[in-house]
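Treating backbone geometry as a discrete language has practical consequences that deserve illustration. The amino acid sequence and the backbone structure tokens for this protein are reproduced below.
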Amino acid sequence: MVARRRHLSIYPRSFADSNGDGLGDLPGIISRLDYLADLGIDAVWLSPVYPSPDKDFGYDVSDYCNIDPRYGSLADFDRLVAGAHARGIRLILDMVMNHTSDQHAWFQEIPLQPG
């Protein structure tokens, strides 16, 4: 018999707000890891938490190597990964390269061409 997998997609902005600012964040997700494990969730697909000018609800990523301060810090992300793995939950990050912001260094470093 094949084990049934239970995956959950989390949109961090609305999942769990740890500091009362009205925006979900990584510490909020961390605070719910035991609940997710109790539900039998074995993988979480995390919508973008990267820095973004937020013209497309976070899908216009300006830095794929950092965490948007509205969601927390890289240390919070490390705690999320460690906490999820300690509970047998895999973490899948949404990498949306085709939604890269025009404010990303890739575009900022290109010299403008006339016309």
Remarks:
- The first helix runs from residue 12 to 15.
- The chain is about 30% helix and 10% strand.
- The first strand starts at residue 7 and ends at 10.
